[in-house]
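REVIEWER CHECKLIST
Item 1: Sequence provided? yes
Item 2: Single chain? yes
Item 3: Sequence as submitted:
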Amino acid sequence: MCSLLWMFLIVWSVPAFSKEEITGATDSKIDSKSSGMEILNMWGERPAETQELYRIISNVLSKRKDASFADVAGNEEFQRVCAQYGVLHLGGPMLGCIGKNSARVWLRTTRPAKVEVRVIVEGVEKSFGPVESTPESDLTSVVTVTGLKPGTSHPYRVFVDGKQVTIPEHSAITTVSDDNKTRIAFGTCFHRWGLGNQKQADCIRSRAPAAMLIYGDIAVQDKLNHLGMHRADYQVRDFLPAWQSLCAAVPVCATWDDHDYFANDKSGIPLGYTDSDRAGVRKVFTQAWNNPSYGFNNQRGGVFLRTRIGPCDVIMLDNRYFRTGEKLGFLGNEQTEWLKEQLLDCKGPFIILSCGTMWSDFVSEGKDSWGKNDPAGREEIFRLIEENRIPGVLLISGDRHGACGFRIPRPSGYEFYEFEAACLGGRTGPASRAASFPTCLYSFSGQYAFGEFSFDATKEDPEVAFRLIGETGETLYALDLRRSQITPP
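Item 4: Structure as written out by the authors:
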């Protein structure tokens, strides 16, 4: 009887969604098939030199599926334009791997070079690096900054071969506080154009999160195994002022979903492609972000990770790379076992557990998600949490455009809370149907917004405040929870 109740609650059928609901962009002139140049100029025409550089870069990268930024660096016209305008870097600085005493700074250069980061620490500028960018690293370097104090802000400068590069004026590393209070922003589905929304970027930055979790459909749009065009889409990201202003001050952690993996609904090794194609897509991804780790390493693959931000353990899953379509194959057996070990190992008061697609089936009918692919695997995870009384688990999800949240009832009487914020690109989608479900917490569609958790672990019963924030700072939905409320009985 309990299992029948579970199936009824979780796999409740919903009406079919029209193509317009799923794919309609906020700006009708921009959609998933728009060119990189169109995306680059969507939020205002970029300077002539930026457009000229992007034209050259995209031309080089589009010629071969394995084209890289080393090929771009070897292009004489590209180097001539860089010299003409004094361009020393193509992307970054992007902050990541934030902790109480350290952070990492990512940068992509225009040619192999030495990258140095200089940080103001207690009134004195200290130097970190240099770290070389190389053809093998796709012209990226990651500089580790250490020796900082918790809860302090440190302006920084970046140098390439001894020359200072232009970065946002507000660029600063703000370490995680040790007072057991932390704010973390999150969301999915920038879909390239949302990365250029300056109002949203400014709003996120103004709320001073310790980090931002982005877990799918971010910067690459359906480029399959054309690694050159994956790289070209990342270049659009890095030329957008809104993204530049955000990632230079807010550390990010990123995992992927279908569109930045291969294409819509693709997973595993898609039909007609090879393991080499899959490894190539992963390599481009790992060189374009600034995560503490990526899955099982280069030999075994994946991009999942676990990190700690203040009082919160963060586990970000990869529901694409290992998927087999078999029972217990949504994450792959190895990642599933890894996840179980991590959940049992977490010692903090809260755990953020992300998945690129939705945990529940209220809206998606399981489309490209757990419901039709692996309900047994989901059940194993939920039971593990319940049977071991793992406290403070917050489920976050994406994929199905818009923003909606749910309570997920369990046969035990416990309820999980799922917070979906697939609205960084302002798309419309099936979230507009979510309000018809009695377990729905919130439902918004067709507007820019991001999710946010504020943790306070100083109290006897630690608290988390969820907010769904619109692009201009308005609170669209608020929910405050105590850890005891999200701890299985």
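Item 5: Key structural point noted by reviewer: Residues 209 and 262 are 30 Å apart (CA to CA).
Item 6: Recommendation: ____
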